[in-house]
Amino acid sequence: MLQSAFTPDLTEAGLDEAGRGCIAGPVVAAAVILPKDFFHPLLNDSKQLTEKDRILLRPVIESAALAYSVTFIDNHIIDEINILKASFRAMHECVDKLPLKPELLLIDGNRFPAYFGIAHQCIVKGDSKFASIAAASILAKTYRDDYMMQIAADFPEYDWTTNKGYPTPAHKLITMSKGHTPFHRITFKIKEPKLRTPKV
What we know:
Blueprint (H helix, E strand, L loop, with lengths): L11 E7 L8 E7 L17 H14 L2 E7 L1 H7 L1 H15 L6 E5 L10 E5 L7 H22 L7 H4 L5 H10 L22
Parallel strand pairs: 1-4, 4-5
Antiparallel strand pairs: 1-2, 2-3
Helix pairs in contact: 1-4, 2-3
């Protein structure tokens, strides 16, 4: 069961991102401040949920949250400053945009550049431990998926409606064959996937 808070008295914002491992599209971060008593039986790390459950939970989170924000950092900036710095920039911008200032940031992961004036706590696998981080993971994932579905219409052969920009074997092969789109991260090295030979 997810914990509702890291501390009982401070206003906490959970932060997470989606899309770090992709070869196309933006990295998207979200910050969510939930009420201390918030509970939903489906709430969990976005990776542990079905797409249907993530879509169901997003409006629930947005309605219940005391504050939330979402930030996109596009592939061109990712290529310019690298994916780790882009992820941190997205998280910092999320905090900038929150209408309610948190007193503690709960970060999914093991490192984070300090945000001036606000303490933070890094939590490995935090999206499966704390409700606010799980909520942030769902917002980041669903907003990013929606974006990839929108741009997929102009590049149907890359199958972003299914792979969402992640380096599946099929996505790697079509990118190596057709080349990069304006949404691909050109600094990400794409290696030919190892295809399994069926047993005879």
